[in-house]
Design brief:
- It is a single chain.
- By secondary structure, the chain is α/β, with parallel strands linked by helices.
- It is built from 12 helices and 16 strands.
- A 9-stranded mixed β-sheet has the order 11-10-9-8-12-6-13-16-15, with helices on both faces. A 5-stranded mixed β-sheet has the order 2-1-3-4-5, sandwiched between helices.
- The radius of gyration is 23 Å and the shape is elongated.
């Protein structure tokens, strides 16, 4: 058979990225008589799961077929019925999956149900890592109960994000900034501090133009509610802006922001600052699977020090600012001894443009 059905299923699943949260991105392919007779991928708006769509397209040729699917079929009642029962009714003889579903409501039980019905189930372990990367945030959420938090920054080669006087222009290239939009598209929420809003009047939107399952939630840490009512974030609000304040936030400002359509919550943290860990826990309760932090030195430090960050994604430009007043990517008081430095593992380098690269790495927590 001159085809790779699981590879095609993974490519189909990628079409659902950004369109499935809080569900995983899943692709499915039905093979009968050595040819693909059915294809499907899940989107949240489309409701039906990838397996069902692929089986429907296969029609009568689904009987005795092999179903290739990137994630273990579900076996519980959600917005749709269990996929395992649809597969059994379709008369499929074999199911090949790339990985088990870490969701406690599935986690091996889908495989068990299919095998009990006499269907052969195989795990294509050579595709497991690729399938895991496709649903990194979903897997993290299911295992940890918290959204995957990525600290993103654009930095010079000497680790600076801001000059002391004039900050017009960009650190990285247009190619790198387009890549950032892809990361935003994959994220459920994005967070910054009030300092960044006041300095840049940023929008923090997903500008890929691609369909999303829900709007990118923009979050501003603002202990005193200083965000201007005329800022672009407030003027463009579409039920997608959350301002996190403290008990010191003036009630009148809260009312004005809420009248403008902004959601305001109070989360008091140490030192009169907002409680960033509380933000992550709030997102978990609201079933946001991923959060990207795009902020300044102080917020970046707070996020790292509180260990809410799971990984970093730093874009490096071929530039050096130097000086003691240029802001480093991580500010705050810092770690006072080299032996106490934040440590990372599973480091990956990504080529972004001819002279730019990105570093992706996971924080070793408790180190």
């Amino acid at each position: 058979m001159n085809l790779d059905p699981m590879k095609e299923a993974l490519e189909l699943a990628r079409q659902g990225v950004g369109r499935t949260s809080p569900n995983p991105a899943v692709g499915a392919v039905v093979v009968s008589g050595g040819e693909v007779v059915g294809r499907g991928y899940h989107t949240y708006a489309g409701v039906r799961h990838a397996e069902v769509l692929a089986l429907e397209e296969a029609g009568e040729r689904r009987r005795g077929s092999t179903l290739y699917v990137t994630l273990e079929p579900c076996c519980h009642q959600g917005r749709t019925g269990p996929c395992t029962e649809a597969i059994i009714r379709a008369g499929v003889s074999r199911v090949v999956i790339a990985m088990e579903d870490p969701n406690p409501m599935v986690s091996g039980m889908g495989i068990r149900r299919l095998r009990e019905a006499g269907i052969r189930v195989d795990i294509a372990s050579q595709y497991t890592r690729e399938a895991e990367l496709l649903n990194e945030a979903y897997i993290h959420f299911m295992r940890k109960g918290l959204p995957l938090v990525t600290l993103k920054a654009a930095v010079t080669l000497d680790g600076k994000i801001s000059a002391p006087e004039d900050n017009r222009g960009w650190i990285t290239s247009e190619v790198a900034r387009a890549h950032v939009q892809q990361l935003r598209h994959q994220a459920d929420a994005i967070l910054t501090g009030i300092g960044t809003v006041l300095a840049d009047d940023c929008r923090l939107t997903d500008r890929t133009g691609l369909e999303r399952s829900r709007p990118l939630l923009r979050i501003v840490l603002d202990s005193q509610l200083r965000i201007p009512l005329h800022s672009r974030m407030v003027l463009e609000v579409k039920s997608d802006l959350l301002v996190v304040t403290t008990s010191a936030g003036p009630d009148e400002r809260r009312k004005l922001l809420e009248q403008a359509g902004v959601r305001v919550i109070t989360l008091d943290g140490p030192g009169g600052r907002t409680y960033i860990r509380g933000v992550v826990e709030y997102l978990a309760r609201e079933k946001y699977l991923s959060l990207m932090i795009e902020a300044g030195s102080k917020v970046n430090w707070s996020a790292l020090e509180s260990e809410v960050v799971d990984k970093i994604f730093f874009y490096y430009a071929p530039k050096i600012l130097g000086g003691m007043q240029s802001l480093p990517v991580i500010g705050g008081i810092g770690r006072r001894r080299r032996v106490d430095a934040f440590r990372f593992q599973n480091v990956s380098l990504h080529s972004i443009s001819k002279d730019e690269f990105a570093v992706e790495a996971w924080l070793i927590k408790g180190a």
